[in-house]
């Protein structure tokens, strides 16, 4: 008689190892998320020492936000994100193309990678405090410009709309362009060298190779970069908060949506804060979906397009 061998099921150990993640996610993410959505339908705030609510008021918080300055702060957030992201993606693409081009034979690539990534390791709060000190009216930038004789009076960089927004955008650019460059370099290095060699044999120059080979093949990473940047832009808080002392000066032109959300949390208005959080979630989802649809290529080899063209020509021929 054959003895029945006892089978060992290793699958249960996998579930056991991932169980802590689901427990932590449930406690610290899912339950607070559900509570945030629930509180958005309630009147729940503190007036002095008196606590009001929670009283169910339906969609009143959402309607109140539509009548507030939420759209103005949303426009501020978009402008600040564009000021930082546009030069970030342009510089990152150029640096990624340069560092991965074997024909240029750039020396010290590892050193340059470390240098451009270093600002990403600095805390945003420390970065904002550094710029606040450097560009203040009594800061070193004004002192240098006055000693060179370029200006007579100190410039109030943070007293103008252009100056404040430019500083915030420049800081976001410095902090994140290194991370974007490293990701795009990894994407370009994942392209087969045979494709580049074939393009060289066909007589493609550097610009043609970049636009017709590199960009289409790194489209998934570009989509990922854009989506994560949009989410990060909507969550912009620490740099403008510290640089403007939480006021969004001048005239609240640098007040972001998360700063607006933080003001509701400071005033203990949890209902309005929850409604604004839901709005942010919906906006993030819509923008990410639009970006995904714009950057996702369902027909990389052009076969679907060619099939549609043949079908269209066949219908025309049958009509004749």
From TrEMBL:
Chief location category: membrane
Bias-annotated ranges (Basic and acidic residues): 311-320
Transmembrane region(s): 12-34, 78-99, 111-135, 173-196, 217-237, 270-292
Assigned keywords, A-Z: Cell membrane, Membrane, Transmembrane, Transmembrane helix, Transport
InterPro entries: ABC_transporter_permease (IPR051393), MetI-like (IPR000515), MetI-like_sf (IPR035906)
Stretches for region Disordered: 299-320
Pfam families reported in the protein's UniProt record: BPD_transp_1
Entry membrane topology: Multi-pass membrane protein
Protein name: Sugar ABC transporter permease
Organism: Blautia faecis
Taxonomic lineage of the native organism: Bacteria, Bacillati, Bacillota, Clostridia, Lachnospirales
